[in-house]
């Protein structure tokens, strides 16, 4: 049955659905393991087991251009005026498949090591404490603008070696580029993404040229130096990698922070338990990532025909894996609609899986734990000051802001 016949079940452009998609996901899971959705011509996959398996299935790909032309794959090439966005996007790890993905991830991993992330720990915790202290001193404010945004943006900029004086455009550039990841983006969204892609690329090209002349201890210098058996990153691959690390390195963290605190305010018993026992922070981070997933949908192309529950999905089709639904699947999670900060078995897929598993997951966890700990310690009376508004986006799930007060 086509889901499009049931708009109340899944409507990414309806604000009531965007506000709370989880009841609709339950209906989708009850209807089957794969359902075709006409408005986007995608096959929706709502169950955790299927999403988890498909993320590892090499018959699917983030791109098809390593095997087929647009024409061979039955797809139209992107509009020529959108080329700057696609050049930037298509050279990043997230939208490449082996062998290019393997080569680039290996080289990036040489610079983006666990030791590099761990070395940032004191900086992350110190900055989180500074931001929260300022919020407390002001008696409250917007948790998004005052803590959730500046922390991960500053951290990834610090890693990349972007000077503080150059950081103001980073978040707007990121927001405009990420607008293209929504379903059926408008032409205006595409224009903003193209402009941001051009400006961000030009900035990074100049910064990379500076680092070639004067290398430092930053990640960009590490990417320039990284090589393996004669392989090096091209300049475009370096630019695309830096943009991907910035966008992925803070979009999810920003939204996970405000989604998480909004969930805690709506579940005062769980918030009280967390305030009474700060050792719950690590499991709270995992549970809040599951409970209100910052990335709701992840797409893959069908490179070779597959079958799901008796339904044949042909080559050239697009699959939309519903992360938010998978993270609420009762076959995997006991009482998934309940926020449980002590949940022990929590195989959420908020950081994806397979070869595209988020390379920055350890950093995101560190940032989320640092800001949560700072808020628990320095703002134990933190409370909601006004009902927040959801961003109208479906794929990247977040709030317009989160007004809080400290008594």
Topology:
Blueprint: H1 15-19, H2 22-31, E1 35-37, E2 42-45, H3 48-54, E3 60-61, H4 83-90, H5 100-111, H6 114-119, H7 121-137, E4 140-142, H8 143-148, H9 150-160, H10 170-178, H11 187-213, H12 219-225, E5 227-228, E6 231-232, H13 235-266, H14 268-276, H15 281-291, E7 297-302, E8 306-308, E9 311-313, E10 318-322, H16 323-326, H17 361-378, E11 383-384, E12 403-405
Parallel strand pairs: 2-10
Antiparallel strand pairs: 1-2, 3-7, 4-12, 5-6, 7-10, 8-9, 11-12
Helix pairs in contact: 4-11, 4-13, 5-12, 7-9, 7-17, 9-13, 10-11, 10-13, 11-13, 13-15, 13-17, 15-17
Characterise this structure:
- The chain is α+β, with helices and mostly antiparallel strands and 407 residues long.
- The chain has a single domain (3-405), classed as Orthogonal Bundle (Cytochrome p450).
- 49% of the residues lie in helices and 9% in strands.
